[in-house]
Amino acid sequence: MNETTLVLIKPGGVSRNLIGEITRRVEARGLKVSGLKLMNASRATVEEHYAEHRERPFFKDVCDYLTSGPIVAMAVNGTNAVKAIRAMMGATNPIEALPGTVRGDLALTIDDNLTHSSSDPEAAARELGLWFPEGTIS
Ligand code: CMP
C-alpha cells in the first residue's frame, strides 16, 4: 500500500552531520523523499508532536532535546513506507537495535536515538499535518 510517513532527524543527528547518511539509506531502500526541511522546531510543535507522552517521565527531557538545536523534518513516500521506515530505524532504544538499522549502526542511547518515525498510518497522518501543514509532494 502506498503510504507517506514522517521522519525527524533529531538535533544529535544534525550536529553529527548524519543528515546525508540517514537520507541516503531512505532513498537507497527505494523510498521517495516527498517533503524536507531543516528547522528550529518550536516548543509548541514539539509538545503537540509528543502529546501522547505528556504524562511520561521523559516528556520534558525529550521536548527540551528536540528544541535544543536544528532538526530535519522529512516526509517519506512509498510502498508500506510506515513499516519500512520503522524497521530501518531500529528499536527505540539503540542498545536493542539490530546492526544494519540506523540506530543499531549509529546510536547508543535512548535519549539520543537520532530519529523519530511515525508508529502507524494514523500517527503518520497526524504528524505530517503538524510538520507539513503546507502539504507534501506526492
Ligand atoms: P521517539 O521515537 O522520538 O519517541 C519518544 C522519544 O522519547 C523516544 O524516541 C526517545 O528518544 C525518548 N525517550 C526517552 N526515554 C524513553 C523511554 N523510556 N521510552 C520511550 N522513549 C523514550
Account of the 3D structure:
The protein has 138 residues and is of the alpha+beta class. It has one domain: 2-Layer Sandwich (Alpha-Beta Plaits). The chain is 40% helix and 20% strand. It has seven helices and four strands. A four-stranded antiparallel beta sheet has the order 2-3-1-4, with helices on both faces. It is globular and about 35 Å long. The mean pLDDT is 98. It binds adenosine-3',5'-cyclic-monophosphate. The site of adenosine-3',5'-cyclic-monophosphate has 8 residues, from loops.
Which radius of gyration do the C-alpha atoms yield?
A: 14 Å
| Order of secondary-structure elements | EHHEHHEHHEH
The computed structural class is alpha+beta
Report the β-strand fraction as a percent range: 15-25%
CATH fold title:
Alpha-Beta Plaits
Q: So, the CATH homologous superfamily?
A: Nucleoside diphosphate kinase-like domain
Q: Which CATH architecture is right?
A: 2-Layer Sandwich
Shape, please? globular
> Main sheet?
4 strands, antiparallel
At the first level of CATH, what is the class?
Alpha Beta
Strand order of the largest sheet: 2-3-1-4
* Cofactors and ligands: adenosine-3',5'-cyclic-monophosphate
> What ranges have pLDDT less than 50 throughout 5 or more consecutive residues?
none
- What is the helix fraction of residues, given as a range? 25-40%
Q: Count the E strands.
A: 4
Taking all residues together, what is the mean pLDDT?
98
